[in-house]
Every structure is written in C-alpha cells, then in structure tokens.
Amino acid sequence: MNGEGNSGPVFADPITADILLSVNGDERPITVDTRETLLDTLREHLDLIGAKKGCDHGQCGACTVLVDGRRVKSCLTLTVTVDDREITTVEGLAVDGALHPMQAAFVERDAFQCGYCTPGQLCSAVAMVREVADGWPSAVTADVSGPAALDDDEIRERMSGNLCRCGAYVNIVAAIKQVGS
C-alpha cells in the first residue's frame, strides 16, 4: 500500500544515466533508465531490432549480441554496464554490404527456418569461433593444451545457450563448421 488507501503501488521515479554506446561502430550518446536492459535499449531506442526477446530470462539466446567481442545475453545485461564498450549486433556483422562469412554460411547451409533465433545464433557463432581460435576450452574439449578441434560435439556444446525452436541444429552446426574450419 502507498499510505493513501488502496489505490495501488507507488513506484519511484526512474533514475537515469547519460552514457555513450558504441554500437556497430557508431557512437550513440543516450540517456537510459538505470534499470533498462541492453536488449530494450537496442530495440526501443536505437531501432536495432535484430536481437530478439525470446524468453527474457537469458535461457534461449535469441537476444545474444557481442560486447567487446564476447557474447552476452542482452536481456540480462543492464545498458549502463556497457557504457563506452564496443557492442556488435547482427546488423553490424556485415561490412560494406558484404555478408559476414558466418552469415553467408548460414544462407548457404540453410541454417535457419523461421529465422527468429538466427541473429542470436549468428552473434554467438561468430564469438564461439573466435573463442576456439583463442584456445578457450569447453566442457567437451578433449585436449585443453591446444586449440579445440571444431567437431560437431564441440560446436553443439559451445552453442548450447542458443535454442532453435524449429530444430535447424544440423544445418547450424554445418554452417559453423564451414566457417570455423
């Protein structure tokens, strides 16, 4: 109760912050509510609608974007935490109108059906290939003393945070293997 009867809860005024977002190579000064997620900022304020709100709990990966080259679930990331960091969305993967090699492989391998999860799958796959190249092991990496072999099991493990409700996994794995090999 708010002390004035049963008229409902009273919410505090939002606390805002002025920050500088670097998104897909463009610097964007913006004022955000400190409680706002990066996903909401991208979609509602910057008109970058590639990242999708799937579960809004960080479980499906549809909202995956890159922050300083690392994959993050933008539905769980507060916008104020990425002030002055480099954010790449699916819209920023292509360069000068040419598809990123991962995007081209997804098209060539028919690695999508409805396409809802595809932006998150692409961002995650791009970062995952870089993680392998940098020597980061996963739970299924057989030999942690060197780079992991990018086989089907390794790709599936590393992409396990990105769900595809249509079941295009076989083609997603083939597309990633094509680029990562």
TrEMBL record:
<dbReference type="InterPro" id="IPR036010">
    <property type="entry name" value="2Fe-2S_ferredoxin-like_sf"/>
</dbReference>
<keyword id="KW-0408">Iron</keyword>
<dbReference type="InterPro" id="IPR002888">
    <property type="entry name" value="2Fe-2S-bd"/>
</dbReference>
<dbReference type="InterPro" id="IPR006058">
    <property type="entry name" value="2Fe2S_fd_BS"/>
</dbReference>
<keyword id="KW-0479">Metal-binding</keyword>
<dbReference type="GO" id="GO:0016903">
    <property type="term" value="F:oxidoreductase activity, acting on the aldehyde or oxo group of donors"/>
</dbReference>
<feature type="domain" description="2Fe-2S ferredoxin-type">
    <location>
        <begin position="17"/>
        <end position="93"/>
    </location>
</feature>
<keyword id="KW-0411">Iron-sulfur</keyword>
<dbReference type="InterPro" id="IPR012675">
    <property type="entry name" value="Beta-grasp_dom_sf"/>
</dbReference>
<dbReference type="InterPro" id="IPR036884">
    <property type="entry name" value="2Fe-2S-bd_dom_sf"/>
</dbReference>
<dbReference type="GO" id="GO:0051537">
    <property type="term" value="F:2 iron, 2 sulfur cluster binding"/>
</dbReference>
<keyword id="KW-0560">Oxidoreductase</keyword>
<dbReference type="InterPro" id="IPR001041">
    <property type="entry name" value="2Fe-2S_ferredoxin-type"/>
</dbReference>
<dbReference type="InterPro" id="IPR052914">
    <property type="entry name" value="Aldehyde_Oxdr_Iron-Sulfur"/>
</dbReference>
<dbReference type="Pfam" id="PF00111">
    <property type="entry name" value="Fer2"/>
</dbReference>
<comment type="pathway">
    <text>Alkaloid degradation; nicotine degradation.</text>
</comment>
<protein>
    <recommendedName>
        <fullName>2Fe-2S ferredoxin-type domain-containing protein</fullName>
    </recommendedName>
</protein>
<dbReference type="GO" id="GO:0046872">
    <property type="term" value="F:metal ion binding"/>
</dbReference>
<dbReference type="Pfam" id="PF01799">
    <property type="entry name" value="Fer2_2"/>
</dbReference>
<keyword id="KW-0001">2Fe-2S</keyword>
